[in-house]
Specification:
This protein is α+β, with helices and mostly antiparallel strands and about 210 residues long. The protein has 7 helices and 11 strands. It comes from Ligilactobacillus ruminis.
Length: about 210
């Protein structure tokens, strides 16, 4: 389960950081940049992706309000391991780890939430590797939809192209799979969103 930072904590981050804005297509940071700051998403969505020398992109995740990124800044002399680009108009709170530590020391509840957030990020990446290595195309799509949604939030703001990028699959292949799921009333989609209707049907594909 993904962990988000509740809005009640946004003021604490802003008290030691600054608000910055990005337009669609603008980079927050790129691979190999120095990792000095951590970011909290106040509004909008960003894409996390890896690039190759040939220009190919593999999307790792799409993050939205309440998510934190830039965790590498917890390590001294670290560099960014991925690219972060704005998908929509984005508003972030940017702060340095050295300024955040005293806040965490004074607020045990927020410190625990941050630890849970970091753990959930590690679990997410482990699950992503397992999906890419061990699943066929249909299972990859099914697992991704299950991971990105839950019974209380069955809708995600993804297009077929977004899915293809996240799963390193051909867009035509993803569209064919999604059409099959839609015909079976397992999902429905339109206008850049996907809704999971039958989680059990997707779960059965992974057994």
């Amino acid at each position: 389960m993904k962990v988000v930072i509740d809005q009640k904590y946004f003021g604490l981050f802003e008290s030691i950081g600054k608000r910055i804005r990005f337009s669609p297509g603008e980079f927050v940071f790129c691979e190999s940049d120095e990792a000095n700051e951590i970011y909290l998403i106040v509004k909008g969505r960003v894409q996390v992706y890896l690039g190759t020398s040939s220009g190919k992109q593999t999307t790792i995740e799409v993050l939205k309000e309440g998510r934190i990124f830039g965790d590498a800044s917890f390590l001294e002399h670290s560099v960014r391991k991925a690219n972060i680009v704005a998908i929509t108009d984005v508003e972030l709170i940017c702060c340095r780890i050295t300024d955040l530590i005293p806040i965490l020391q004074e607020n045990s509840e927020l410190a625990l939430l941050m630890m849970r957030h970091l753990t959930s990020t590690c679990n997410y990446l482990t699950n992503t590797i397992n999906r890419l290595v061990n699943y066929d195309s249909i299972q990859k799509v099914a697992d991704f939809l299950l991971t990105e949604t839950n019974p209380n939030e069955p809708v995600i703001p993804y297009t077929h192209s977004d899915l293809a990028g996240c799963l390193n699959l051909n867009r035509v292949t993803v569209s064919r799979i999604m059409e099959k799921f839609k015909a079976e009333r397992t999902v429905e989609y339109g206008r850049g969103t996907i809704r999971v209707l039958k989680r059990q049907k997707l779960e059965e594909l992974l057994k």
